[in-house]
Amino acid sequence: MSAAVAEAPAATRVHYLNADYGVKSWLLTTDHKRIALLYLGTITLMFFVGGTMAVIMRMHLIDPAGALVQPATYNKLFTMHGIIMIFFFLIPSIPAVLGNFLVPMMIGARDLAFPRINLLSWYIFIVGASLALYSLVAGGVDTGWTFYTPYSSTYSNTHVIPMALGVFIAGFTSILTGLNFIVTIHKMRAPGLTWFRMPLFLWAMYATSLIMILGTPVVAITIFLVGLERLLRVGIFDPALGGDPLLFQHLFWFYSHPAVYIMILPGMGVVSELVTCFSRKKIFGYSFVAFSSMAIAVISFLVWGHHMFVSGQSIYAGLIFSLLSFLVGIPYAIKVFNWTATLHQGSISYEAPMLYALGFIGLFTMGGLTGLFLASLATDVHLNGTYFIVAHFHYIMVGGAVMAYMGGIHFWWPKITGRLYPDLWARLAAAIIFIGFNLTFFPQFMLGYLGMPRRYATYPAEFQVLNVMSSAGATILGIGYLIPLVYLFWSMRYGPIAPPNPWRAKGLEWQTPSPPPTQNFDVTPVVTEEAYSYGPPEAAREAAHG
Amino acid sequence: MELLNPNAIGGLLAQAVPRWPGFPLHPVRASTIAEGVDDLHFFLTAITLFFTFIIFTVIFYFMVRYRRRSADEQPPETITNMALELTWTLVPTALCVVVFVWSSSLYFQNSRAPNASMEIFVIGKQWMWHLQHPEGVREIDELHVPVGVPVKLTMTSQDVIHDFYVPAFRVKKDVLPGRYTSIWFQATRTGRFHFFCTQYCGTGHAVMIGWVYVMTPDDYAAWLAGGTRGETMTQAGERLFHQYGCVTCHVAEGSGRGPSLVGQFGKPQKLRDGETLLVDEAFLRRAITQPNSMPIPNYAPVMPSFQGQLSEEQILQLIAYVKSLAQEERKGTGQ
Fold this sequence. Notes:
The complex is a heterodimer of chains A (546) and B (335).
Chain A: H1 23-27, H2 32-60, H3 71-107, H4 115-138, H5 151-155, H6 160-187, H7 200-232, H8 245-279, H9 286-299, H10 315-343, H11 352-375, H12 377-383, H13 387-417, H14 423-450, H15 464-494, H16 538-544
Chain B: H1 6-16, H2 34-65, H3 82-111, E1 118-125, E2 128-132, E3 138-140, E4 142-146, E5 150-157, E6 162-166, E7 171-175, E8 181-186, E9 191-197, E10 210-215, H4 217-226, H5 233-243, H6 246-249, E11 268-270, E12 276-278, H7 281-289, H8 312-334
Parallel strand pairs in B: 1-5, 4-10
Antiparallel strand pairs in B: 1-2, 2-3, 5-8, 6-7, 6-9, 9-10, 11-12
Helix pairs in contact in B: 1-2, 2-3, 5-8
């Protein structure tokens, strides 16, 4: 690596955080690193809003008759929890925060291809999020995050329009961010950084961006049509107006299934970085991991019908969707096996980011395998619409995507802030989150198999024991998420100064000081080796190869 | 050899699962299809446990075996191993194909209702279930059926999408406004089993639940006789057929302005645009609510739409009547 590491202490050196001060310098910034922090603040707020709702729901469900709120309120809680967590936390989480910060740094560029569009997408996100929060304060929405028609378009008398508009507008954030990443990765890679030398995080961001720009317009239009039917009574989805309710489900899932991969693919990219760094090994099967991301991006558009096995769609369509859904599982299996094999003969250490990565692999494995029950037609008929589904997608989205996001935040925190956090607290939090998560969601697999439907404000008494277990777990999980909030905030001011490369990681982002200067690199780096060259020093390797 | 029978494995596992009151681990099994679904479920559970165990064990082993012992430790270079990559690509693929074939054949088998099924009409509305027996007995949030008899539910919704789910029978299907969906089951034991709405339908979604009472055929006959019975579905349909003037055009002899409906049900019908449709419940529903969307050759498209004039229940009664006309004809030709 040719880039020299500046040794001046962060306090005296000019970097992106102290280059300028004041609210205006943040709100008008076009620096991708600052925009990443704007997103970080916004989505952290959304995460705790959505999380608070989850806690209220779990407390409510301690009692079969409902312990806390009215059924109508409960319905609004799970709706808002879903909308906020999916559209305003998970979808932007890794791409908009870590992707924004890291894509230019990992390819050795000064910024994204379109810095102003990048800032614009944050403002669009703020408008969307504000509308969502307005809808919440105005009285909430009770359609379920899935907005199924004709309930959402005709029957619900809650604040559907501002919420739909919020989701519609926030969609443009995804489209613009995806566009920005694709152009940046194509055009702005540093000299020597060929496609197959790119870190796998970039492959994952590339695949995610493709899904974002191809899928998001479809859901945006679909939500728009719901608004049109609701406001102007144009018959699109409501049979009473001559519409087709299943058409909505096809359009909605055409995006919303790939959206699952928007949430999980970036997490897989993060885990590939963490596993290699903390076992000091090159990834096992680089091209298999890279191409499995691309395979997922393509196949993800062909499996939406597996959400509709009991909806009344043709059983022959169900057959095709079932087969394709099994196939989309294979690239995931490949990734899990490759991460595991990477550990073989490694030099493994267990700092907090690695604990999150290992937690991710475990929980994701369980989430993925339980997906087989739902891809399979005969068992899906029994499990569809029950808590089994709830457990399955939380294993993927919380056990998978959120664990990876937390791991990534902990991994790059010293780079982002220039400070170290207390590792002991971080490890403790990772362990609490892992335990709390399993206690919350494992009983829900059993509830679903027993037949408890999801989205029930009250439930028959025979389901109570498992519900109480799940609620107890949610308390632990909630505490687990609060601890990092405290020590990460604390570290920004009081944490020890971070060295440029505290984990001795490879990758261009570690070749520049922490926090990086505004232009990222003082000298444009030149890449001379493959990603994750943790092996023996180059000289020794060249000697070995003769 | 008996141990290798996949059905036996499910049964053994089911018996091995402890049953604690208030904390069941296994849902009650009360239909002919439940066992097949459970066997597949157990097989998938076994796959899940097996792979989870393998991956967790290997990771834990590596974590301990290859923990970092000194800061400047230098692990050997990662080698690529194509044979290994192909193995862990092809083995899961093969397993998936096995599960796919098993599951899909089971699903197809479970999708087809036997011809001799007893037919019950189900109307979902916010937030109650309205069920009607062919003999005219109506129930709300309760369904009485005889054990050992295949029962077919023909379902529609009056408002939003609902879903009819009986966990003990392992059957479920969405109930949509504007069209008919159906499920069938054959209960294998008497008792009382929950049914749930599993498609979120608004404020009262969680109370849109009820009970299926599975009775011995004798008890069922007694229950049916004891109920307050009005007209049968067919009688009600016949009354409506006259009341709404259908009879003035759909003359039985075929000399009216509309086609005769005798013997039409279950047969293919050619439309003016050349398309041929089977005359089933969905066909008749569309013919009643949107007749102009399906003009029939040799007849002027003069039939008015009855959309909004007839309730979902009345449409079902008319369909039952048209069906009975088909049966009358069959009886007639058979003699």
